[in-house]
Amino acid sequence: xxxxxxxxxxxxxxxxxxxxxxxxxxxxxxxxxxxxxxxxxxxxxxxxxxxxxxxxxxxxxxxxxxxxxxxxxxxxxxxxxxxxxxxxxxxxxxxxxxxxxxxxxxxxxxxxxxxxxxxxxxxxxxxxxxxxxxxxxxxxxxxxxxxxxxxxxxxxxxxxxxxxxxxxxxxxxxxxxxxxxxxxxxxxxxxxxxxxxxxxxxxxxxxxxxxxxxxxxxxxxxxxxxxxxxxxxxxxxxxxxxxxxxxxxxxxxxxxxxxxxxxxxxxxxxxxxxxxxxxxxxxxxxxxxxxxxxxxxxxxxxxxxxxxxxxxxxxxxxxxxxxxxxxxxxxxxxxxxxxxxxxxxxxxxxxxxxxxxxxxxxxxxxxxxxxxxxxxxxxxxxxxxxxxxxxxxxxxxxxxxxxxxxxxxxxxxxxxxxxxxxxxxxxxxxxxxxxxxxxxxxxxxxxxxxxxxxxxxxxxxxxxxxxxxxxxxxxxxxxxxxxxxxxxxxxxxxxxxxxxxxxxxxxxxxxxxxxxxxxxxxxxxxxxx
Length: 529
Known about the structure:
By secondary structure, the protein is an alpha+beta fold. Among the domains are: 95 residues, Immunoglobulin-like; 232 residues, Alpha-Beta Barrel (TIM Barrel). Helix content is 21%, strand content 31%. It has nine helices and 29 strands. The strands form five sheets. It has a 15-stranded mixed beta sheet that branches. Strands 2, 3, 4, 5, 7 and 8 form a six-stranded antiparallel beta sheet that branches. A three-stranded mixed beta sheet has the order 6-1-9, with no helix packed on it. A hairpin with a 3-residue loop joins strand 12 and strand 13. The radius of gyration is 26 Å and the shape is globular. It starts with a helix and ends with a helix. The N terminus is likely disordered.
């Protein structure tokens, strides 16, 4: 082919390419959508996932924030959005927290301007509950407000550190970005990779003395901090102290803090699955004891040991959101506040243990009509009827009633045999119990045994757990000696590590930590009597 003919051929191909591009552009269509409540007709914030005919994620038009979830990229919207598509089979899915049914549509079955109606299948606020995420780090409050509305969150706690850029957000009060029904509070997290991490809620001023991450783990190499100073200062301010991501990092100081009454709750569900072993094994590796003598426990089972030792330590949930890999509110705590929607009522419900944690299932649980956090006195023996119902837009297979850490009522139905009805998976369990000693009773949704591939962020199983109802015989606390002995080993392991002379920022803190651990041992010893 001559050079002239080659140029002609290239020109022809260019013209054809431009024609095809223009034709494709001409086929593009803009679809406008509004998201509304199907009953009230009010506009609803939500997150939207758009996928093309190949199943690839497509962003909605305009500027927006997004997040990854369930294998898709989701775009946040205040309820009005548009999609540009050149095909009729572009898929659109809309979600808005666990109380609203997800909606799936196709551009081919909608008009150029359409309403997407969302149905709230349950209204927990009408039942007296507030739900919230106690632990995120990003985004900033202004951006977080739209996202928490889209996730149907009532309360959001953004945690900052003393050295963080974001600590300039701290006001010691309700954040100005809040709105009625959506409360944001900027709180504080203090961290030590060996001693543990703390979430400090309800502070009026930040707790000083914890400017960096303490301890040693992978790339971290710093001196250690004594956490009890932060706990004491938080309580002095009238705030509450939560152990951060307990299933991941139970830490060396937690059994001491619980014994001394310095902790108000455990964040059981955050980064690691409560039904799996922790990823940070520091307390066991540095205990001086072999695993056979001091076995590693799952976060959930470790919490049970404290309940069996007579401590009423509530559980909470948060996401520890630090990037766009998980939606805020994926893990949340439903606090029963009897309809009071103030932040003060929220904190009060946390301390009393009135509620349940979940990453999807909604639990309705009572023991003889008593709700989580309540305590009932009795003498002799007592017959108790416990019942729980779990309802969820996510599939689950196992529901259980637990008494002093043991299964007292159980049901497993594979999801293939228990399909959703009107979009809701549902299951109920009841148990008749004869109590002859002080006991705690709770309920949980466990992992689906036939689900080989976990769909939730960070490999979490579908999970929910209530706080206990306590039944106290003759005024005596729950006492399971095996649990008390295990916790004493935990404290002895902490003392073993402290005596190995780890470096503390303040050398006196190590001495004080040993003293507090020995005081805790005396308390555990007294529980055996």
